[in-house]
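does this look right to u?? calcium ion version
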Amino acid sequence: MTIRCIIDTDPGIDDAVAILLALASPAFDILGITTVAGNIGITTTTRNAGRICALMGRPVPVQAGAAGPLARKGFDTAEIHGADGLGGVAFPASATLPGADAVGFLAETLTREPAGSVWVLTLGPLTNIARLVQDHPEAAARIGQVVAMGGAVRDRGNIGPRSEFNMAADPEAADIVLGAGLPMVLIPLDVTRQVRATPDDCAALHAAGTPQAEFSARLIEAYFQSTTVTGPGAESRPLHDPCVMLYALDPGLFGLEAMGLSVDLGPTRDAGALTPDAARPQVQVATSVQGRAAVARLIAGLA
Ligand code: RIB
Ligand code: CA
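got this back:
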């Protein structure tokens, strides 16, 4: 099955690995990449999207989106993703000029293409998608499926005790999208922390010899340098955003549970935290994954 999709992203080290996997996989027909501020500012995330496509020689349309959250100040995670957002890994210059209307691009594409035929794969804060729902509800209703990396349901957060970065960066946007009744699969930290790359996986990627494998190895090694993990799993790093592409490629790797989710909109570090709520529209939440099989699928897809 061809996955006709738009990727909404804040590249970002793990976003970059996810985008490289999609560009390298014939199953994906990427209609465009829309960018959002998140891991780093919008100028950098947009430039990085173009650089990743340039590495693969693919002139995928890139459209810049929101420079910040709907209603709050965002976070700066340069310490994880580096000042350039790609861990200092040198990519070629972007070969195309980006547009500046991510939401308009999403609305036009969804309106033009047959209803239900386009998936939206989100790897960052949901600001652009929330604006699409608010400003173009009829286009949003034509989305085939949203597959979103974000949240923590039973596992701990990575911003507050219960809040995960993509949801915490723009809680109001998360609340709009999770309340919109869109066909949606949410891939939370509960499963992405089980999809872990080890130094041996990096060696396998280096050995594969393709540009996407080589650069993914360099990105993951930069991740090893920029983050500290203590205790079990210290010798590996979670691959959060690639799980979205892995779900699209092989949903059988994941176990899903249907549940409604409410979003903490309060003033604390737990803003963005998700709580199961039967009164909210149901989304499919990935609550289990075959972790090593998922990493093997990633390496095979990049090789
Ligand atoms: O919490 C993980 C998410 O935050 C990933 O999308 C990563 O890129 C960061 O944006
Ligand atoms: Ca991301």
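The chain has a mean pLDDT of 96. idk if thats expected tbh
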